[in-house]
Amino acid sequence: MTDNAQSVLLKLLKSSLFGMKADLPEDADYDAAFNEAKAQTVVALASAAVPSEKSAVWQECAAQSTAHYMRALFEQTNLIKLFENNNIPLVILKGTAAAMYYPKPQLRTMGDIDFLVFDTDFERAYSLLQNSGYKFECDYGDGRDYTFMKGEVVFELHKRYSDADFDIEDILIKGMKTPVVRTVNGMKFPSLPDYENGLVLLDHIRHHLEGGLGLRQIIDWTMFVNKTLDNDNYKNHFLPLLKAARLEKFCKVVTKMCGMYLFLPEGVTWCDEADEDAANRLFEAVISGGNFGRKNPYVYKPMASVTSAVKKEGVFKVLQTAGMGNFPICRKNRFFGAFAWLFQLFRYIKRGIVSLFRGENLLNDISEGSEKSDFYNQLGI
Prior knowledge:
Layout: H1 4-18, H2 30-40, H3 43-47, H4 56-85, E1 91-93, H5 96-99, E2 113-116, H6 122-130, E3 135-139, E4 145-150, E5 153-158, H7 169-176, E6 180-184, E7 187-191, H8 194-207, H9 215-228, H10 231-245, H11 248-261, H12 276-289, H13 302-313, H14 315-326, H15 328-332, H16 334-337, H17 340-357, H18 362-379
Parallel strand pairs: 2-5
Antiparallel strand pairs: 1-2, 3-4, 4-5, 6-7
Helix pairs in contact: 1-2, 8-9, 9-11, 11-12, 13-14, 13-18, 14-17
């Protein structure tokens, strides 16, 4: 399942995170393990367990990562003060809200600073950032998040967190009404309560599965489970949220994978029944993709995506939904709207003919889409 570099990296991570003996092989390839750690964005986490005679390059990279972490934490604190002074509530998502479960939060590589505001406060929050030295960069057109820059730090203002496939917004909004003030490395920040926060970490894994899921997101979940989800807490507090979010099966598979390849306390048995094959396939996706697809960048294949969607939702629904999106006349005219599926069918036929002339292997794409659909079904998503 794992090659030398991946096996060494997993041993280093378990040692660093949980104090377990690394038990490294004599032929450990630390250079290859370092490259794997870079692709997975976990160099700083693993560096503490690397033998001193091999650790120079690891420590240099870890120092840079920690410096960025502290810089981001400083800017996050300034952001929180700015919003507090203007009476705009917010909660931090991921980032320090994941790092707080780690034994040494500063060793978790920091990415963007994601934060969520109430929908009713969004316009004020957006204007406040623009008028306070934060430079707007972009949004993705889906009404979820808006990217700003300040210095070298990236901020993601979330109007909503959820995507269309798994809408957990009502759960998060309820959690926002009872925020918890946390402290990491001497700095305070507001977060969602533990179980709502954990739901975000789990859904973050689901959200990035197709585009590029790495070990960093998996370790975030592992540390959350280690800190909060024994059998009683899972059953009494977290399971109701999972059922509402339709992520119960996915949660068990992800957690079983964490136990197989990282570490879970012996008392965590609520994931034992999960599909082991699905857990192995999920780990293969993680280890082959790297953080946000660094090792294996995601390439969108229309026919694969359509095939996957058809297996999940049915032919007519996929055609009708796509037709309504691709043909404005179907949205403007009720008569033509009833035939949106037909417009889209002809569009697919045209694109298929063009693809054949380009020499694209549509049968391989169809097979890939079918296989992906089966895998997602195994995961419960």
